[in-house]
Amino acid sequence: MLKKLSIVKQLSIATATVGLMTVGATFAHTQTANAAAIRSGFDSNTLQRNDDGSTGQVSIGFDVDFYGLMFDQLYVNNNGNITFDSTLSSFTPFDLTSTGQQIIAPFFGDVDTRGPGEAVTYGSGTVDGRAAFGVNWVDVGFFLQNEPLNSFQLVLIDRSETGAGNFDFEFNYDEILWESGTASGGNSQGLGGNSARAGFSNGTGNPGSFFELAGSAVNGAFIDGGSQALVSNSLNSDVLGRYVFSVRDGEVEFSDQVSTPEPASILGLLAIGALGATSLKRKQKEEK
Questions:
Q1: pTM of the predicted model, to two decimals?
Q2: What's the per-residue H, E or C state across 198-261?
């Protein structure tokens, strides 16, 4: 049965192509796999396998002040986001910079967990000794093809020692192989169409109350090896694939400077690898 149709506004984002970006992204992905951006745990609860579903209100375990509104509960939505005000079943990602939804979205796209892969899990845990709440979209498919699979995570971390309601949140990525569902214009491999978005909004549209990562809604940008590959970059973290946002006195103190590996460092390491390969070939030749 065909999925319901949706009309969505698209955000056009201009991106600059940087020399050696493909090389850098490929090398960085190897580092990310070793760094394991996704944290363990946060899996004591499971959102039943579904398409476009949500939990009821679930306890965060601590208070979070999100733009002047204090919350101790949230909704976990299957399609790569959490919301504070209501459940969200939208499967085609809308513009997070103009929405009226109170939302934090590590990867807003059409997740479908009814087929291959895993269901969404969530629960409480700790990060560096602090109370935390996390949601795992690990090995999740897309509508309707289901494979390949993506792995990403959202973690909220209590920072009330710095002030009531203060918290950090992380977007963590280990593998991004699809960007859209077929009902959002994507092909059978989950590419093209209305691509995923990542960011947040408090739903007012006021300046400073919303944010989208560069590459949102841009075909191919977030995919491993893409121009803004989520696994190959970082924000306020030395772990590739981890994007950290601090919320203090109700407002997100974020930087839009996403870190990427230095091209010079990449070339140096690639050169070392090339020299090693040349030496090995020479040795093998001499031994013949």
A1: 0.80
A2: EEEECCCCCCCCEEECCCCCCCCCCCCCCCCCHHHCEECCCCCCEEEEEEECCEEECCCCCECC
Say what the pLDDT of residue 146 is.
Answer: 84
In sequence order, what are the residues at sequence separation of 6 or more whose Cβ sits closer than 8 angstroms to the Cβ of residue 258? 213, 214, 228, 233, 234, 235, 243
Within-domain flag for 229: yes
Q: What is the DSSP string of 53-98?
A: -B---EEEEEEEEETTEEEEEEEEETTTEEESSS-----SPP-TTS
Cα end-to-end distance, the chain, whole Å:
63
- Tell me if 230 sits within 8 A of 182, measured CB to CB: no
Q: Which residues of 261-271 are buried (b: 16+ CB within 10 A; e: fewer)?
A: beeeebeeeee
The one-letter amino acid at 128:
D
In a domain, 19, yes or no: no
**Is the per-residue pLDDT at 85 higher than 80?**
yes
User: What is the domain range of residue 127?
Assistant: 36-279
pLDDT at position 8 is 29
Residue 286, in any domain of the structure? no
Which residue reads 């895993």 in tokens?
Answer: 118
Q: How many domains does the chain have?
A: 1
Which three-class secondary structure state does DSSP give residue 17? coil
* Cβ neighbours for 164, distance < 8 A, ≥ 6 positions apart: 63, 65
Residue range 45-60, pLDDT digits in tens: 999 999 999 999 999 9
Element (H or E) spanning 193, and its range?
none
Query: What are 120-154's pLDDT values in tens digits?
Result: 999 999 999 999 999 999 999 999 978 999 999 99
Residue 114 forms part of a structural domain? yes
